[in-house]
Amino acid sequence: MKLNFKLLVILFTIITFSCKNEEKEESINVSKAKDVSKNLNISLLLDLSDRISPTKFPNPTMEYYLRDVGYINSVSEAFTEHVRSKKVILAHDKIQLFFDPTPLNPEINKISKDLKIEFNKGNVSKEIISKSKTTYAVKPLEIYKLAIKDGNYIGSDIWKFFKTKINDYCVEKDYRNILVILTDGYIYYKDTQIKDGNLTTYLSPELIKSNNLNSPQWSEKIINQKLGFIKANDNLSNLEILVLGINPDQKNPYEEDVIKTYWENWFKAMKVKRFEIRNTDLPSNMDKIIKDFISNKE
Hints:
Elements: H1 2-36, E1 40-46, H2 64-84, E2 92-99, H3 106-114, E3 117-120, H4 126-150, E4 155-156, H5 158-164, H6 166-170, E5 176-182, E6 188-189, E7 195-196, E8 199-200, H7 205-210, H8 218-224, E9 228-229, E10 239-246, H9 255-269, E11 274-279, H10 283-294
């Protein structure tokens, strides 16, 4: 009888210890899953101004619109890789594409709807993920070709997008929100030209020249004259921004620094959580930079 009682105690101790270890291991695995499985909400904002025109701004190495297409493909690959890495039950990720102003060509707007993709536990599969990757590899090129064929380059109202749309379109609770902007760094739209002292809603080579920001003293002038963009938003602390394609006028050796300072000061004023601003380059050179940003590698 005593022997049986001892055996029961030993058996109970072994089972209890084993259960606790399993609970601990399960807790660790759940914790790891949460760390790896952050929900991505990626938005792409395309500048379809005349910067993409192969006629006005030809580039024998690689046309600028084709560089954009390559950047978009890298973003898509990073997004789909993230979705693949998650358990089905944790799938909750989005990717979409925007313009401002909306192009007049209805075909472009139709294609942009095809590029609005959302994954959740009810629809995610290897086939659907692969299909979305193919869509993003093909459809953006169609958009650029249509925009170039139309030749109606009305500018890019990036400032107003930040003012009136970014919170509704690009920022969602319980997501890691990322906005990728494809632009040469200049902002201009005919119907959004506002000045507040020396702050503006636009930036052009002509404005940089008129503000005499083409000398070694450009930085002091920006500070002393309080030059820059008008703040368009009060709090973007739940948004990360990657700007790609900065392409300064080569006639001014300080143009690149001026453009980046305008954007950096603007983002800081709007409390953007994290941002990077990169010059135009071949997509093969930008691929790692884009994917590291999206995977949150510092």
